[in-house]
Amino acid sequence: MPNSIRFVLALHNHQPIGNFHGVIEQAYRESYLPFLDLFEKYPALKIALHTSGCLLEWLDAHHPEYVDRLAELALAGRIEIIGGALEEAILPMLPSRDRIGQIRRFTQWIDRRLGVQVRGAWIPERVWEQCLTSDLVNAGIEYTILDDFHFRNAGLTDEQLSSYYLTEDDGHLLKVFPGSERLRYVIPFGQPQETIDYLAQIAAVHPNAVVVFGDDGEKFGTWPETHKHVYTDGWLGRFFDALLANQDWIKTTTLADAVDNAPPAGKIYLPCSSYREMTEWALPAEQINEYDHITHEMEHDGRWPVLKRFVRGGFWRNFKVKYPESDEMYSRMLMISQRLAAAEDAGTGSSDVLNAARDELYRGQCNCGYWHGAFGGIYLPHLRNAVYQHLISADNLLNDLAGRHGSWVEANAGDYNLDARQELQLANDKLFALIAPARGGMLYELDVRTICHNLLATLARRPEAYHRKVLAGAPQGDQQVASIHDRVVFKQPGLDQRVQYDTYPRKSLVDHFYNPDVDLAAVVSGQAEERGDFVAGVYESRIRRGTNRVQAVLNRTGRVGEQTVHVTKTITLDANSSDLEIGYVLENLPADQVVHFAPEFNFAGLPSGADDRYFFDVNQQRLGQLGQQLDLVDVDGLGLADEWLGIGVMLRSSLPTRFWTYPIETVSQSEGGFELVHQSVVVVPHWIIQPNSERRFAVTLRLTVDTSLAENRRPIRRAEVVTS
User: Fold this and answer.
1) Which of 57, 196, 365, 432 has the most CB atoms within 10 Å of its CB?
2) Residue 412 main-chain phi, psi, to 5 deg
């Protein structure tokens, strides 16, 4: 008989804020419920379970009987409930006050609902920085799980990972367990005996070792093909049977039991890291391919087993560089967090409103929409929308707390996106707008307060490392059950023809100058020549303030062809108004040639492919679904409607104009395979400007947002979030 060994099966169940009800229900039916049903039949087994706070709240609302069963098993000592950040935030992304606050709130929720004490915390995506140690301890946490990859990066060998370690920060001690990467791939994709054999190998060298499997519970039924594999074909039952058959030397246990009965292996300080795959995804796309090429080339080298523990990928925080849209969400989140902290420090206002604003902020910190790997992440519009919806809701509550109940308007300047350059903020009781003068004078956020929706939660198309697989075409033959890291599945045909990249952010007030004869097809394909240097050019800016009106004024002298041209654009917002008035004045135009001027607008969260999401003209006549390409001539305006969301957007021009429209769609990766995802609707009013004696052109655009459909449908509370 092999030596005894402690084996901790630690599951992490999570569904992101903003995920569709049907998707969560399916995960419950395919994974969470059947796992619990089977586990209850094996009373000799124990597990550790982390269910994220947002998922537990959903389960408590829709399946309270499931939560009751968790409580019974936890009180019986069969399941250890693991805590963590209430809304599953990447902890290094948060200010310290929010890290501690989220952890304490979740601990309190578990104590209140399940009646058990939390001692351990799950680190979302195992994104670790050493400074987390103090915050975890200050939040009441004794231990956590990371990957063995973290420990190898610190210089330890696999032979040294037979128990948990102590780590320290500012005198605070935390116990950290290494989770086995090998077991993450063997469970549940290998035969159960592979796990038994692996544990026997460790026990032979390290009697009384502690081995931890820590990974997603969704791989037991929710990941593609796994429900059949795990339940119908009986993998999980065979796995539990194998553990029971070897229980004389394999003790299935909990993290708490291991801490209470096994000594630490020593002290360690862990570098900034995550699990291995995450560090790869955080790299720039071209570097991922190079990393992948080198590691595959080296894996047949006899030196590789020694070398690979010194090889690591990138740093999670650089997702905010890789995806500037993530950085925009992050920066907006920090604005709300700082505003909430200031309100708390002031000690004024209702504690109920403060708590409600804190709840909304925490929900807006849910990690899934801030990054991208094997799952859709930031590529899923409903996750980005959910982040903004909760942040805007928190902002609305803080306005209420500040006594802003009626008509008001303000304008401010500051470094709102943390790039060391000044941005402009226009805000009133209806809208909130952010403008980046140093980035083409673009409008990069436009919040509609009544429905808590950011019309500019867009995403540009950019290279991804996995696009090489897409461009190679769909694989042949049947796919076997496999880890999502190894699957190659095309959810739609012809995706290799849809891969396209943008050279600028897909925001609004992006100022293009094209050749006079350019057509819609050239613009859509990205083949239209850019004759000006205004798209990413730096604009000078200033703010004008009146009693009931504020205005951002942006100026730039740049080039259009060989001609020096001056552009002035103004964005005006009135109190109690849902309109943005946008003025353009072009001066010093060429005297001997026409100029094709085309300011681009993008609108996000208004998806295509449904009859209740459509374009309409100034006479309210429908012009087709929002995914349609339109080429309109001599019209005064164009509208976009989303009846499900309850919003209408109308862009009117003071001069008859032409309009182009087309969708922005990304080819991205999700756990189900490669797919086409609608990101935004592009609307481009454009003019062929004939030279005149003044060499000047002026036009005014009015962007009107109408949410009366949503408001009439039912009362919308400040803290309420409407998802799309």
Assistant:
1) 365
2) -145, 165
Q: Are strands 165-169 and 630-642 parallel, antiparallel or unpaired?
A: unpaired
Please report which helix (H) or strand (E) contains residue 581, including its range.
Answer: strand 579-587
Beta-ladder partners of 12: 50, 216
Residue 216 is a catalytic residue:
yes
Q: Would residue 529 be called left, alpha or beta, if left means φ above 0 and alpha means ψ between -120 and 50 degrees?
A: beta
| pLDDT band at residue 474 using 50, 70 and 90 as cut-offs | low
Please state, in angstroms and as integers, the Cα–Cα distance from residue 580 to each residue in 189, 427, 430, 653, following that order.
Answer: 55, 11, 11, 12
Residue 492: what residue type? Answer: Q
| pLDDT tens digits along 572-585 | 999 999 999 999 99
User: Which one-letter DSSP state was computed for residue 676?
Assistant: E
Helices 351-363, 96-114: inter-axial angle, 10-degree rounding: 100
Query: Do residues 411 and 543 make contact, with C-beta atoms less than 8 angstroms apart?
Result: yes
Asked if 301 is an active-site residue, the reply is no
Q: How far is Cα 34 from Cα 235, in angstroms, rounded to an integer?
A: 13
Q: Is the dihedral of CA 386, 388, 393, 398 positive or negative?
A: positive
Q: Would you say 578 and 478 are in contact if contact means Cβ atoms under 8 Å apart?
A: no
Residue pair 538/554 in contact (Cβ under 8 Å)? The answer is no
Helices 324-346/351-363 angle, 10° precision: 160
| Structure confidence at residue 305 (pLDDT) | 85
How far is it, in rounded angstroms, from Cα 515 to Cα 529? 7
pLDDT on residue 587: 97
What are the residue ranges spanned by the domains of the chain?
5-274, 275-321, 324-462+473-713
Quick one: CA dihedral 645, 651, 657, 659, positive or negative? negative
CA 254 – CA 78 distance, rounded (Å): 8
CA distance 80 to 411: 51
| Nearest-5° Cα angle at 597, 604 to 552 | 65
Distance, CA of 46 to CA of 53 (rounded, Å): 22
Cα dihedral sign, 646-651-656-661: negative
Q: Are strands 83-84 and 120-122 parallel, antiparallel or unpaired?
A: parallel
* DSSP 3-state of 657: strand
* DSSP H helix total and E strand total for the chain: 22, 27
Instruction: Give the pLDDT confidence of 80-116 residue by residue, as tens digits.
Output: 999 999 999 999 999 999 999 999 999 999 999 999 9
Tell me the Ramachandran region of residue 33: left when phi exceeds 0, alpha when psi lies from -120 to 50, beta otherwise. alpha
Q: Is 488's pLDDT higher than 80?
A: no
Among candidate residues 57, 125, 257, 642, the one labeled active-site is 125
271, 153 contact by CB (below 8 A): yes
3-state secondary structure (DSSP) of residue 411: strand
Kindly compute the dihedral angle of the four CA atoms of residues 316, 317, 322, 328, in this order, to the nearest 10 degrees.
140
Q: How confident is the model at residue 723 (pLDDT cuts 50, 70, 90)?
A: very low
Nearest residue to 628 (alpha-carbon basis) of 681, 685, 705? 681
Distance of alpha carbon 424 from alpha carbon 88, whole angstroms: 31
- Tell me how far apart the 2 most distant CA atoms of the chain are, in Å: 98
Nearest to 543 by CA among 533, 551, 535: 551
Q: Which residues contact 462 (CB under 8 A, 6 or more apart)?
A: 285, 501, 502
Closest CA to 483 of 70, 91, 76, 190: 190
| DSSP sequence for 196-233 | HHHHHHHHHHSTTEEEEEEEEGGGTTTSTTHHIIIIIS
Q: Tell the CATH topology of 5-274.
A: 7-stranded beta/alpha barrel (3.20.110)
CA 330 to CA 371: how far, in whole Å?
11
Catalytic residue (one of 72, 142, 158, 216):
216
Overall average pLDDT of the 645-659 stretch: 97
Instruction: Specify the pLDDT at position 720.
Output: 41
